[in-house]
Amino acid sequence: MDRNYFYKMMAGSGRLDYEQYLRIQRLFDCQKEYHELCTHDELMFQIVHQTEELWMKLIAFTFLEIDDWMREGNSFRVITLMQRVHRIIEIMIDSLAVLETMSPREYQYIRLELGNGSGQESPGFRTLLEMPEKLWASFKENYLDAYDRSVEDIYDAHYLHDDAYMVAEAFADYDKLFRKFRFLHLQLIEKTIGLDTKSLKGRLVKQLLDGCSETLFPDLWTVRSNMTNQWGDRYGTVRAPIKSGIS
User: Fold this and answer.
1) How many C-beta atoms surround the C-beta of residue 15 within 10 A?
2) Which of 96, 95, 107 lies closest to 38, judged by CA?
3) β-pair partners for 204
4) pLDDT tens digits along 207-241
5) CA distance 24 to 22
6) 3-state secondary structure of 204
7) DSSP conformation letters of 79-134
8) CA distance 81 to 191
9) Is 31 helix (H, G, I), strand (E, B) or coil?
10) Could you give the 3-state DSSP secondary structure of residue 214?
11) How many angstroms separate the CA atoms of 53 and 58, rounded?
12) pTM, rounded to two decimals
């Protein structure tokens, strides 16, 4: 096949409305030219990581909307937008499987092009690590403090399965998905370069394991442990076995 013909065809003419609205040619300029690729897998590597930055941009934008709707007390909008965020994270998780089609040797060529670059430098990733603290402050102000309630109230002491509980659970689900993304990304790193090595910053790759256990909304996980321990104290942590009633 005529490679040049198809390369030009994919970039479009730049004259059609669809191309102009999506800025297709500018979008394609964000990747290396085909003749500049250090290996054919480099195009895949750039596209997957660039699309993840775009998805993280959309998550951050959506979080700003969620913050606004929480302040207005519109829980339906908050939960709907959180469902959108969950689906975006799931897409990001699925996209990691594309990178697994790259061999460890092919990645070594790409790694030579990265300078001292690291995924930890991702502006989208750093933003998503910071935003949950702000979201939690808004949640606490508008769903707890405004009604003189605590996290323990909405989960146990005065459990109603109401707006506050549903929004909190949407945050917990996001927390779980975000940690899943981090863990699967670490597994991808292990499969590609191994964990017993150093990053391009000179740090041990194994140190990334610590981030996989970090929670974004710690209060939502503490309440579960506290509740289980309290119920155990009240009704017995170790209980008598269930009798089958069969003689």
Assistant:
1) 7
2) 107
3) 198
4) 666 777 799 999 999 999 999 999 988 888 887 88
5) 5
6) strand
7) HHHHHHHHHHHHHHHHHHHHHTTS-HHHHHHHHTTSTT--GGG-HHHHHHHHHHHH
8) 34
9) coil
10) coil
11) 9
12) 0.91
